[in-house]
Design a protein that fits this description.
This protein has one domain. Helix 2 packs across helix 5. The protein has 228 residues and is α/β, with parallel strands linked by helices. The strands form two sheets. Strands 3-2-1-4-5 form a five-stranded mixed sheet. Strand 2 and strand 3 form a beta hairpin. It contains six helices and seven strands, in the order βββααβαααβββα.
């Protein structure tokens, strides 16, 4: 396992923005299944009206399967591109240790499953390993109710999206503040062998430690898997 080193960031995922990082990067949540749900229902309705085991029934089922496959591939492609983008910006990445299976059973379960948080975390872990980055999970309890600057806890309603600390005056987006708490917890738990490094103008790490320039792509560019 790679040791913690270099530039560290925390990553907070959610249903409003797909993720927010301690660097103030926010990425909107795409709706892979929700956007195609109406089309999927139409295809399933057509398939249900066909005579079972007939040629037309098989053709209709293939169309449904292809759409499911398209949704899954689009989600996977998005997750891999975001994972590479995060690795472009940091050497050590810290995420929450949430059990997303429990989250998927709530009233927002469909949206949680559509975002695929569990799959994204596994892809991010794999990409970090392939690219020589450090990946770790930190305790998720209280990350959204703690000031990253002074550690003061507050009891704001989750509907309040902007946090201002009454003790130290720190002010930031709630999800970014949570990501900063995760970064702080990760740094405290996993001391780094090499300290902070600066981002270049194109938001990609540079320097002798950075050996991943072939993956320094933006989110809207095609990112290929690293060779085994």
């Amino acid at each position: 396992e790679n040791p913690a080193f270099g530039r560290a960031i925390g990553v907070d995922v959610g249903l409003i923005d797909f993720l927010a990082t301690s660097d103030n990067l926010t990425i909107p949540r795409p709706r892979f299944f929700i956007d195609l749900q109406r089309e999927l229902k139409l295809l399933q309705r057509r398939a249900s009206r066909k005579k079972k085991r007939s040629k037309n029934y098989e053709k209709a089922q293939i169309k449904v399967a292809r759409l499911h496959h398209q949704i899954g591939n689009t989600r996977k492609d998005f997750h891999l591109k975001v994972a590479h983008q995060l690795c472009d910006q940091a050497d050590s990445i810290f995420v929450e240790d949430i059990d997303y299976r429990v989250m998927a059973k709530g009233f927002l379960g469909k949206h949680s499953l559509d975002a695929g948080f569990g799959q994204f975390r596994e892809f991010l872990k794999w990409v970090c390993w392939k690219r020589g980055k450090f990946f770790a999970e930190v305790d998720h309890k209280g990350t959204s109710k703690q000031c990253p600057e002074c550690g003061t806890e507050w009891d704001n309603n989750l509907s309040i999206r902007w946090h201002t600390c009454d003790e130290c005056g720190y002010s930031n987006h709630r999800d970014v503040a949570s990501a900063e708490v995760m970064r702080n917890r990760g740094i405290n738990k996993y001391p780094r062998t090499i300290g902070e490094r600066k981002l270049s103008a194109d938001s990609v790490l540079s320097g002798v430690l950075y050996l991943d320039k072939c993956y320094a792509e933006t989110l809207n560019r095609e990112v290929k898997k690293p060779a085994p």
